[in-house]
Amino acid sequence: MSNKNSTEKRVIGLKPVYISKSETEKQILEEKHKEKAQELFEAAKQERRQAHEEAARKLEEAEQHVATMRKSWEEERENLITQAYNEGFESGARVGREKGYQEFSEQLQHINYILSLANKDYVNTVSSSEEMILELAVSSAEKIINQQLATQPETFLPVVKKAIEEVQDHPEITVYVHPDDYELIHTQKNELTSITGFKATLTIYISDSLTRYGCVIESPFGRVEAGVDHQLTQLREKLYQLVQEEKNDE
């Protein structure tokens, strides 16, 4: 009996579940809310993406603007540098020209001053040289004449003859010579007298006040010095006078 009961099927009855209408509506509402939320979320994502793209675009525009401004500034800076260089160069060149002209003018004045000093020095040198050359020439002539007279005393005779010729028309002529020259002149007395055509009385005297080759001629009308030293002295004075006249003409 017991096994018979155990093989019998047990039927379990299910009670029907009833869902209230308010819960269904609630689920539907929740679904709608979820859908709406999803839509809002997608819309937010879209807006954020658009905002991001807009920001990227504006950033790119800003960078391009900055690049353009930088390029423009670089060009402007180069132009300013070039302009400043040109102005500076022109100003420097002008200042350089003015300074160069001033220095050249100062150097020119200095050169003219040096030339004027050199010219004065040249004139003084030439002037002193002329006098020095003149003195050397006279001294040299004096030495030559004295040497010639020392080796050839007879060359003194023409000097005495020339002096007598100056007074040959006078009736009395007196000749004074140095003691060492007396013999030479006296031996030529006849020749000296012939100069006057033997019309004058010719007397020869010794004078120890005279230097060697000195000669003094006396006549009724005056006294004439005719010695070599006297003639050289007259020659020196005459030459100095000519040099002085040339200086005055300059």
Automatic annotation (TrEMBL):
UniProt keyword list: Bacterial flagellum biogenesis, Bacterial flagellum protein export, Cell projection, Cilium, Coiled coil, Flagellum, Protein transport, Transport
Domain Flagellar assembly protein FliH/Type III secretion system HrpE span(s) in chain numbering: 108-235
Keyword Protein transport among UniProt keywords: yes
Residues forming coiled coils: 19-79
Xref: InterPro entries: Flagellar_FliH/T3SS_HrpE, FliH_Bacilli, T3SS_Stator/FliH
Residues spanning the membrane: none
Function: Needed for flagellar regrowth and assembly.
Family: Belongs to the FliH family.
Protein known as: Flagellar assembly protein FliH
Organism listed in the record: Halobacillus amylolyticus
